[in-house]
Design brief:
alpha+beta, 3-stranded mixed sheet, globular
Length: 85
């Protein structure tokens, strides 16, 4: 799991300049949900980026989603994004 979270960090790093990032696996909080799939993750990304702060919140989130679009097909079910100041 840690390797996969590091892989996500590296993907984001190759497309977005950021000062810090924290990727949290919250999958365990969603196990009782109807749509829960054991093979897919619920992630929370906390990212501090001057670049992302300089664009609209929607465009910043779209950029992150675009970088991770292939992961949504196979490994990510839900993604919460916090762009920190």
């Amino acid at each position: 799991m840690k390797n996969y979270l590091k892989e996500i960090e590296n993907k984001l790093k190759s497309h977005i300049k950021f000062q810090s990032i924290e990727i949290i696996d919250n999958s365990h909080k969603h196990q009782k949900h109807k749509s829960f799939s054991p093979g897919k993750l619920h992630l929370h990304i906390k990212i501090k980026s001057l670049y992302l702060q300089s664009i609209s919140r929607i465009n910043a989130q779209k950029l992150i989603m675009k970088v991770l679009k292939d992961d949504f097909k196979s490994k990510i079910h839900a993604l919460e994004i916090n762009i920190e100041k």
